[in-house]
Amino acid sequence: MKIGLPIALFAGAGLFYFLSAQKSSDYQKLAVTNFDSEKYLGKWYEIARFDFKHEKDLKNVTAEYSKRNDGKINVTNRGYNFVKNKWEEANGKAKFVKDETIGALKVSFFGPFYAEYNAVMIEDDYSSVLIFGESTDYMWILSREKSLSESVKKKYVDYAIQNGFPVENLVWTVQDEKY
User: Fold this and answer.
1) Strand, helix or coil at 27?
2) pLDDT mean over 52-58
3) Which of 39, 63, 122, 129 is the most exposed place for a label (fewest CB within 10 A)?
4) DSSP state letter for 135
5) Is 9 or 48 the better-scoring residue by pLDDT?
6) Domain Lipocalin/cytosolic fatty-acid binding spans what residues (predicted)?
7) Does 20 fall in a domain?
8) Looking at the predicted structure, is the pLDDT value of residue 119 above 70?
9) Residue 121 belongs to some domain of the structure
10) Which of 46, 66, 26 is nearest to 144 (CA)?
11) Contact assessment for residue 161 and residue 169, using Cβ atoms and an 8 Å cutoff
């Protein structure tokens, strides 16, 4: 009977993963259409985020996206941990939920586990983007530059408020290093 519990736990975890992988959030439905994946590639600076354990105490955060041979996208997130006084980097992969013309992706940094990454607002010149995750716990504002105009910040924050995001929890990322 000792084998039964691990098998049940494994099966339960598998079922949970399958069900969570199949479910999409309302935020996925807000993803921009006419998304140009080629224009999206390259380096982005994090302007703001909701803090969570993998980004806690980070400044000078960047995200870099590049095309893979299998059609997926390489994701490299990098930031300086000002408490530990060291650079941290996470490498992952992203795949489009439907096709490359919709800004709804799934991103994985941990094996087969993917999380939603929805580009819900993007400037026409791909100079900045607002990203919603699968819940109101995950939100990012990214820019091609280390800063962003107050008018664009306000536009993104207002849209987040309209969609139920607690913007008072935003961490405005310090970008003070030269790259």
Assistant:
1) coil
2) 88
3) 39
4) S
5) 48
6) 36-175
7) no
8) yes
9) yes
10) 46
11) no
What CATH number did the domain enclosing 120 receive? 2.40.128.20
Torsional sign, CA 152, 94, 139, 173: negative
Dist. CA 105–CA 131, nearest whole Å? 10
Q: What is the pLDDT of residues 66-105, one digit of tens each?
A: 999 998 999 999 999 999 999 999 999 999 999 899 999 9
Length in residues, the chain: 179
Q: Which two tokens stand for residue 103?
A: 């800004």
Q: What pTM, to 2 d.p., does this model score?
A: 0.84
Full 3-state SS string of 49-111: EECCCCCCCEEEEEEEEEECCCCCEEEEEEEEECCCCEEEEEEEEEEECCCCCECEEEEEEEC
Q: How far apart are CA 47 and CA 128, in angstroms?
A: 9
Written as one letter, the residue type at 127 is: S
Give the phi and the psi of residue 8 in degrees, each rounded to 5: -65, -40
Instruction: Give the type of residue at 164.
Output: G
Q: Which two tokens stand for residue 3?
A: 């084998």
Percent of the chain with pLDDT over 70: 85
